[in-house]
Amino acid sequence: MSSLALAANLNYADSIHALSFGNVKTEGESGGVVWLNVTGFAVDKLPHIQQDIGVQTMDNIEALKTIAGLASVAAKQAKWGDLVYLYNVFAMNGHAPYADASSSEMQEGLLSAVTKPDKSGVDSELIALYIKTSSSPLLVKAFEALHTTPVPSRTHKRWDSIYCDSAHKAVASVCRSLVDSIHFNVSVKSGGPRNICKGGCCISWSANATFQIENLYPAANYCLSYCHTANISCEVYGVELKGTILDQCLSNRANGCT
Q1: What are the b/e assignments for 103-136, b being 16+ CB within 10 Å?
Q2: Whole-angstrom distance between the N-terminal and C-terminal Cα of the chain?
Q3: DSSP string, 56-72
Q4: Where are the alpha helices (DSSP H) in the chain?
Q5: Domain of life, per the record (predicted)?
Q6: What would the pLDDT profile of 29-88 be if each residue is shown by its tens digit?
């Protein structure tokens, strides 16, 4: 069964197994907002997954609802490895290629969930916990690989107004489609979630503000022009959105700027 939208006909473990191979219904559906709430939940088991995340999707609402539902089941069953994985799938707009547990995009997300606070390496005990509480062999393999995965140093010159990052890259052509689609969108955006996603690309921003969605276009377009690579992750500092100064990001994640 190749579509996550049919997950109602699968049991929980089979759904996680299918999802971990990237079997998600393709985007193109209606948009909307979905939330995945995790703040304060099992802090000792999920120390790096403690921020509620909402996604304003333009194209993948049903898949995100299904993923959030699976996450609720994972929490009830203490499937911590599954929950870390589902959180990352959700954060990347349920985009099928990124949902594949062996993808580089997913590996980045899983690595963040097991990295020590001082960035000195990975937490082997957390990795072991997540291996034991994963429902898919492919996901187990992905967590096992983290034992020997180096933690990247994430230092850059904050005094620059724009930064092309090496982490959480999205396909630039997909981002171009997203950016062009908001160019003349006069809908008013206020509060959370602080993102807009389409396919495997998201625009996100660092603080609540009230503005027209088209106001996101200049900085996002600047990212695409300035970084000018086939895959892009970019942050622009000091963006003004109708009087609010914030940072704006273009990446494969809805929480790229938080």
Answers
A1: bebbbbbbbbbbbeeeeeebbeebbebbbebbbb
A2: 35
A3: EESS-HHHHHHHHHHHH
A4: 12-20, 61-76, 80-91, 96-99, 104-114, 124-132, 137-145, 172-181, 217-227
A5: Eukaryota
A6: 789 999 999 888 899 999 999 989 999 999 999 999 999 999 999 999 999 999 999 999
